[in-house]
Amino acid sequence: MNSSNYYKIEGNKLVRTHRSCPKCGPSFFLANHFDRWSCGSCGYTVFKRKGAPKPKTTRRTPRKRQKA
Ligand SMILES: [Zn+2]
Predict the structure, then answer these.
(1) CA 27 to centroid of ligand 1, rounded, Å
(2) DSSP-derived pairing of the beta strands 31-32 and 25-29
(3) Who is most buried in 8, 29, 31, 61, counting CB within 10 A?
(4) How many other C-beta atoms lie within 10 A of the C-beta of residue 21?
(5) In 3-state terms, the chain is what percent helix, strand and coil (to 5)?
(6) Per-residue pLDDT, 53
(7) What is the DSSP string of 36-61?
(8) What are phi and psi of 6, to 5 degrees?
(9) How far is ligand 1, taken at its centre, from the CA of residue 10, in Å?
(10) CA of 56 relative to ligand 1 center, distance in Å
């Protein structure tokens, strides 16, 4: 695997596109999955969270019928 996949050049800056494993060290990168990052070495997994997390309990409010 080409290690340059883990970086991209933006202007004159080197930007990391992959996260590194906090357990294994900065030289171990997490594999990018569609919903998570995972380390192939120790199994460390970080779930991606887009936007606000879903509320644990969703209480449905009963629909009020509008009087005609
Ligand atoms: Zn690891």
Answers:
(1) 10
(2) unpaired
(3) 29
(4) 22
(5) 5, 35, 60
(6) 60
(7) EEE-TTT--EEE---SSPPPS--PPP
(8) -90, -5
(9) 27
(10) 29
Torsions phi, psi for 28 (to 5 deg):
-105, 120
pLDDT of residue 26: 86
Is the pTM above the cut of 0.70? no
Single-letter code of the amino acid located at 4: S
> Counting every residue, how long is the chain?
68
From ligand 1's centre to the CA of 35, what distance in Å?
A: 18
Render pLDDT for 1-59 as a digit per residue (tens, 0 to 9).
555 577 788 898 877 777 889 999 988 989 988 899 999 999 999 898 876 566 677 67
The residues, ordered by sequence, that sit 6+ positions from 46 with a Cβ below 8 Å of its Cβ are: 19, 30, 36, 37, 38
Say whether 5 sits in a helix, a strand or coil. helix
Could you tell me the distance, in angstroms and rounded to a whole number, from the CA of residue 25 to the centre of ligand 1?
Answer: 7
Tokens of 6: 């883990």
